[in-house]
Amino acid sequence: MLELRDHYIFRGMRVIQFSFDPNGMGPDKDHLLVYTGTHDNAPILSWYREKPLAERRAMLNCLKRMGYHKNSFMSDVIDYSLDSNADMVIIPMFD
Question: What pLDDT band is residue 6 in, cutting at 50, 70 and 90?
């Protein structure tokens, strides 16, 4: 499937809620769209609050290690997304 995308030079897609790894985030591929979430997902803050406390702490620590420390998970994720090397970042209004 990725061969088809790359052959026709389609953009890749990354949804932060599906790809957030508190153990460390790898570099983004080129030619990419990044979304904080989709219309089918809970807003980023609700999604975060549904996580167990240990996972929430790990997520905040991950963002801090990458230089994001506004003490607002939602703001940090938005900043992280905007700082990515994505061609375009989509932030749903509810985020």
Answer: confident
pTM listed for this prediction: 0.84
Cα 48 to Cα 27, 51, 68, 85, distances in angstroms: 22, 6, 16, 24
Total residues found in the chain within this entry: 95
Domain locations in the chain as residue ranges = 2-90
The one-letter code for the residue type at 4 is L
Q: pLDDT grade, residue 35 (50/70/90)?
A: very high
DSSP-H helix ranges across the chain:
2-7, 16-19, 44-49, 53-65, 73-83
d(CA 41, CA 95) in angstroms, rounded, equals 11
